[in-house]
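Progress against Task 2.4 (sequence-to-structure conversion) is shown through the following example record, which the project officer requested during the mid-term review.
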Amino acid sequence: NKIDLAGAVKSNLHEMRVQARGAEIWLILAQLDTKGDCTGCHEGFAQSQEEQFAAAASAAKQAIAKLQPMVSDEAEKKTLGSLGSGLDRWVSLYGDYTSLAKRRQFPEAHEILNGQINPILQEADKATEQLVELQHRSLQASSRAAESSVSRNRWIASLLGALSVAAVVGLLLLGRKIT
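C-alpha cells generated for the chain above:
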C-alpha cells in the first residue's frame, strides 16, 4: 500500500545516510592513519559501506517507482519527482565524494559533502515527511468517503426496504379487494 511504500522510501533514505556516514568515518580515519596501521586491516570496510549504500539507494528507487502509478494528486507527484531527482543527484555526488576522498583530495570532497550533498539531504527529509503526511491525508480522506458511502447506502437500503414493505401491503390489500 502507499503508506508502506512511503515508509520504505523514508527507511531506505535513512539507511543510505547511515552507510554514507560509515564510509565517511572510514575515509577520515584513512586521512589520519598515515602509517596504515588501522585502515590497512579494514580495507574492505569502505567498499562494503558503499555497496550497502548502493543497495539502499536501489531499494528507495524501487519504492518510488512502485508509488508513482499509485498517486494521482499533483502534490504527491511533485514530491515523488523531487525525491527521485534528489536521490539520483545524491548517488552521483556521493560517488564523486568517495572518489575524491580515496585520492586524498579531502578539501574538494568536503566541499561536495557540505556544499551539495547536505542540501539535497535536507530537501529529501522534507520531501519524505511530506510524502508520508500526504499518504496519511489520502487514507483519512478515503476513510471519510467510505464512511459517507456506507451511511448513504444504509439510507438507500432502508428506503428500499420501506418501499418493498409498502408494495407488499398494497398487493395484499389489492388481493383482498379482488377476492
